Amino acid sequence: MNIGIIGAGNVGSVLARRLNELGHSVAIAASSTESPRLASAAAAAGATATTAVKAASYGDVVILAVPFTAMEAALNSDVVGAVAGKTVVDVSNPLTEDLMALEIGHTTSAAEAVAGLLPEARVVKAFNTVLAPNHARPVLGGVRQSLPVAGDDPVAKRRVLDLGTELGFEAIDVGPLSTARYLEPVTGLLMQLGHRQALGGEIGFALARD
């Protein structure tokens, strides 16, 4: 599958590498094609470094791995047109600058805001509940991390569920895109546990069942 990733930071770079290892063809973009981080991420992942518009045009699935505060700037009119009709995965969390609280929530979510910016795309929420380094480690302490996936389009959601499973997570359909209102605070809790409770970054969540 061709996958476009917009964002070459901690999450985008790891997902690019993992998806390339699984045999997908990845094009990755950053805010500037001259970004050293983009060059490093592309080289480490075996991905093609390109512009956001070209990454969006290239991907059958497009992953938005940019901070929520930069989302509107990243989704210019050319990118919006390029992702029309495509599966777009929002991995952002609307965290405050200190990472300890949410900028928005309760009655909406970052995912719903992204869907509003991309009215012709099929937006799915996923990967936001996994801390950045742990996208390369789906199993922590012998326990497979759960990967909640929310979306309104069943075909798009199925594609993302399959990608999550392929990456080694326990991908779980959690319902419509509005469920992101419950998923985004999960990362806030993980940050609280990791930093304020000093549990470190190698933590994640799993759904227990009987």
How would you write the strand order of the largest sheet? 3-2-1-4-5-6-9-10
Radius of gyration: 16 Å
Main beta-sheet strand count, sense and barrel state = 8 strands, mixed
Mean pLDDT, rounded to whole units? 94
Number of strands: 10
CATH class: Alpha Beta
The named CATH superfamily: NAD(P)-binding Rossmann-like Domain
Order of helices and strands: EHEHEHEHHEHEEEEHEH
Low-confidence stretches: none
Question: How many structural domains does the protein architecture include?
Answer: 1
What is the third-level CATH name, the topology? Rossmann fold
Content of β-strand: 15-25%
Give the N-to-C terminal Cα separation: 35 Å
Helix content: 25-40%
The CATH architecture can be named as: 3-Layer(aba) Sandwich
Figure out the total of helices: 8
Overall geometric form? globular
Structural class: alpha/beta
